[in-house]
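Dear colleagues,

As part of the handover before I leave the project, I'm documenting each prediction I ran so the next person doesn't have to rerun anything. This entry is a single chain, and its sequence is reproduced below.
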Amino acid sequence: MMSGRERVGAVLRHRLPDRVPCYEVLVDPPVVEATLGIAGKNTAMLAPRELVDLALRLGHDAVIASLKFFRPTAFVQAAGGRPDLASIPRPTDAERDSWLERCARVVEIAHAEGLAAAAYDHGAFDVVYESLGFENFMYLVYDDPEYLDAYAELLYGFHADNAKRAIATGIDHLLIGDDIAYGSGLFIAPEHFLPLWQERERALVALAKDAGLPVEFHTDGRLEPVLPWLIDLGVDLVNPVEPYCNDLLDLKRRFGDRIGFRGNVDVGGNLTHGTPEDVYVETRRLVEAAKPGGNYVCSTSHSVTASVRPENYRALVRAVHDHGGYAG
């Protein structure tokens, strides 16, 4: 039987594991409290030992260590939406280092327990519109693309350096979070999006690939129009494959020989409103349909949100363990 680390590594390298892996980026307080007895904390707030213990008790195969993000939203808003770039305060070395030290400790403990460990960093796009405010961002797309490009480069430089330092902690793969789409497609037209995003994201992915590490990519929304770009960048796994705007089995049929998929169990459906039996049946059907050929990791369609009932999430994991195995 494979360890969780071996299982996740197999999928990220497009090989067949012994069972469909299962893990999440974020678990909100209700499931954390029901599992560990720790109140008021999500996984980004847990100490390394607590984070790994949660994964072990839930039956996960990997843990995700968040890094310090650079998203100067309050400063930008206070400065009227277009501050001089030199005036924007950067996170301090101490702030960044504390998250990297936590990442290194998570890696150490996870590996000792047989789990995979990844670092969660941000990409070149979503921190830009999130910190500028979307309306302001859209004006800048047309009114001042030079400023927007320089602003994006400022934030990208920080996160690229984050990735370099995280790789040195011994992570098994890099997870890039970068929401570039919503239900019907890209947030902005390709002619505006690609010059702002593509080559920066390519360089970020290359940092991991040059170190021999796979890359997982997170974006909400409709994946079909962006998958060819992600494949071209060298991304190995994409999440969370939201079911309301993606047909996982169709995407896997068309793209699954070149990229893996993680997710697709709807957090707005049975996980929140159904019974454990409902979740078990839904997950079993999904896993049995999606697992042929490999390249699939089962998880929620976003994260284990506060609305998800702990007993329902446990049913999801149980179904993966019961029905995710590969013959032989």
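The longest strand covers residues 116-122. The beta strands are 62-66, 116-122, 173-177, 181-182, 185-186, 215-218, 237-239, 260-262, 296-297.

All the best with the project,
I.
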